[in-house]
Amino acid sequence: MEDRQKSIVVGITGASGSIYGIKLVETLLQMEYLVHLVISNAGWRVIKEELGWSTSDREELLRDKFGSFPGTVVYHPVADIGASIASGSFLTKGMIIMPCSMGTLSSIANGTSDNLMARAADVMLKEGRPLVLVPRETPLHAIHLENMLKLARLGVRIIPAMPAFYFGPKNIDDLVSFLVGKVLDNLGIEHALFTRWGDHNEQPGE
């Protein structure tokens, strides 16, 4: 039987920053999670453009990129509205959409459930399970902000793709890891992806 506490839904949309979602999947798999992965059509386009991955055979690509990790990826096409994660009776720890486009955020905020990504997020809301969205857009206009406020009032964790610099990042991977770590913090998942504030200043015995 699948362990609910080791099963999590990850969505990757067409917002810039697909590297965030890929790093998140890799981190969860390294922790031996079962990742139910949904990638929108625009998400696949951005993965190809930003990471240079060939997406002609999507399932083969995922096996090649993630097959060596101790965890498992279950890929769900975004049009498969009958997938397991579309039902509230299917138990998972929660869902993370990283990065989250404004279109997907709007769909969730307005309950349209017009594809598997939005439906799975709607399931999290109706079942009271954790839902974390990582929007990546700038500048933000009033509709974007109103949709975020609506979801925040429903308990959705909104974690914009805003990396910090207080921990002394040396490269892009450090910045990506910081944001992935912040997402995992909000799901209560322990990690060592970045140095926390104060940790580098603590002296033995203090």
Automatic annotation (TrEMBL):
Keywords: Flavoprotein, FMN, Prenyltransferase, Transferase
Keyword Lipid metabolism belongs to the record: no
Binding of dimethylallyl phosphate, residues: 166, 182
Keyword Transferase: yes
Gene3D superfamilies hit by this protein: Flavin prenyltransferase-like
Residue sites binding FMN per the record: 14-16, 40, 101-104, 136
EC number: 2.5.1.129
Reactions the enzyme catalyzes: dimethylallyl phosphate + FMNH2 = prenylated FMNH2 + phosphate
Domain Flavoprotein stretches: 6-187
Pfam families: Flavoprotein
Origin superkingdom: Bacteria
Class in the EC hierarchy, top level: transferase
InterPro entries in the cross-refs: Flavin_trans-like (IPR036551), Flavoprotein (IPR003382), UbiX-like (IPR004507)
Role description: Flavin prenyltransferase that catalyzes the synthesis of the prenylated FMN cofactor (prenyl-FMN) for 4-hydroxy-3-polyprenylbenzoic acid decarboxylase UbiD. The prenyltransferase is metal-independent and links a dimethylallyl moiety from dimethylallyl monophosphate (DMAP) to the flavin N5 and C6 atoms of FMN.
Family membership: Belongs to the UbiX/PAD1 family.
Matches recorded under PANTHER family: FLAVIN PRENYLTRANSFERASE, FLAVIN PRENYLTRANSFERASE PAD1, MITOCHONDRIAL
Protein name per UniProt: Flavin prenyltransferase UbiX
Source taxonomy: Bacteria, Bacillati, Bacillota, Bacilli, Bacillales
Annotated gene: ubiX
